[in-house]
C-alpha cells in the first residue's frame, strides 16, 4: 500500500464508503462539513458493473472528485463471497491509485454499532451462517478480541464469563446454550442502514488513528461451500 496522509479530526475528513457483502450496493459519503449522504440499491446481480459508477455519481452530486477524498471505508464481511470480493478489490485498486488509506469495517462491528452497550463488558457478536450455524466474534471494551469463528448450535460451544452480552438476531437461542447467566440482546443488521453504520464506524477509526498499511482483506471465516467438479476434464487433442 502507498504511504498515507496523516489522519485529521473526524469532522474534517472526506470518507467514501461502500459495501457489497449482501445482495445490494450500499454507498455513502462523509464530508468535512459533517454532512453524510448515503445510497442503497438492492442488487442481486451486477454489483461489479455498478459499484464504481454509483460512487462517481455520488461524488459528482456532492461537487467532489476522487482527489478530494482522505480515505475509503469498505465492508469486508462476513457475507456473500462474491460480493465481498467485489468491494474489497475495488477498495484496494482505488486506494492504490489515490494514495489514501482504507478503513475496513466488519459486519460484526456494524451490528455492535459505533456506540456499543456496556463497553467494559465482554460481548459475543453473532451473525447468521449457512445451515443453522452462526459466525461469531468476541469483543472486549468494544474492540475485537481474537479471530472470528463459526458456532454450531451444540452445547459447550465456547467459554464465556458470566454476564457476557450475546448480541445478534439469534441471541436468545445462543444464550440458551449456557447454563450460567449471559445476557441476550436480540439485534439484526438492517441492510438499508449499512452505509450509515459503515461511515460512522469508519469516521471513529479515522479520528482515533486506527489506520494500517495492510491491504483490506475479505473476512470469509469459512471456505466456500462450492466444491470442484468431480467430472473428468476433457482431453485436449493436438
Can you give keywords for this protein?
Nucleotidyltransferase, domain 5; 2 domains; 24% helix; 238 residues; alpha/beta; globular; 5-stranded mixed sheet; disordered N terminus
What does this entry look like structurally?
The chain has 238 residues and is an alpha/beta fold. The chain folds into two domains: 116 residues, ATPase, nucleotide binding domain (Nucleotidyltransferase, domain 5, 2-Layer Sandwich), CATH 3.30.420.40; 78 residues, 2-Layer Sandwich (Nucleotidyltransferase, domain 5), CATH 3.30.420. Helices cover 24% and strands 25% of the residues. It has a five-stranded mixed beta sheet, sandwiched between helices.
Amino acid at each position: 500500500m502507498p504511504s498515507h496522509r496523516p489522519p485529521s479530526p473526524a469532522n474534517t475528513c472526506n470518507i467514501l464508503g461502500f459495501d457489497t457483502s449482501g445482495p445490494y450496493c450500499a454507498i455513502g459519503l462523509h464530508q468535512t462539513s459533517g454532512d453524510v449522504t448515503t445510497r442503497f440499491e438492492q442488487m442481486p446481480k451486477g454489483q461489479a458493473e455498478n459499484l464504481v459508477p454509483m460512487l462517481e455519481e455520488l461524488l459528482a452530486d456532492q461537487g467532489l472528485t476522487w482527489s478530494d477524498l482522505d480515505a475509503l471505508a469498505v465492508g469486508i464481511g462476513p457475507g456473500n463471497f462474491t460480493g465481498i470480493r467485489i468491494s474489497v478489490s475495488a477498495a484496494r485498486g482505488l486506494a492504490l491509485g489515490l494514495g489514501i488509506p482504507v478503513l475496513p469495517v466488519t459486519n460484526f462491528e456494524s451490528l455492535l454499532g459505533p456506540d456499543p452497550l456496556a463497553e467494559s463488558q465482554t460481548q459475543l457478536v453473532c451473525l447468521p451462517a449457512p445451515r443453522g450455524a452462526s459466525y461469531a466474534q468476541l469483543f472486549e471494551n468494544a474492540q475485537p478480541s481474537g479471530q472470528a469463528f463459526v458456532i454450531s448450535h451444540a452445547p459447550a460451544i465456547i467459554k464465556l464469563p458470566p454476564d457476557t452480552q450475546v448480541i445478534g438476531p439469534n441471541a436468545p437461542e445462543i444464550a440458551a446454550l449456557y447454563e450460567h447467566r449471559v445476557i441476550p440482546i436480540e439485534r439484526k443488521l438492517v441492510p438499508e442502514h449499512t452505509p450509515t453504520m459503515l461511515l460512522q464506524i469508519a469516521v471513529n477509526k479515522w479520528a482515533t488513528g486506527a489506520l494500517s498499511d495492510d491491504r483490506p482483506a475479505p473476512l470469509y471465516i469459512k471456505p466456500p461451500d462450492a466444491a470442484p467438479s468431480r467430472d473428468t476434464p476433457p482431453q485436449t487433442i493436438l
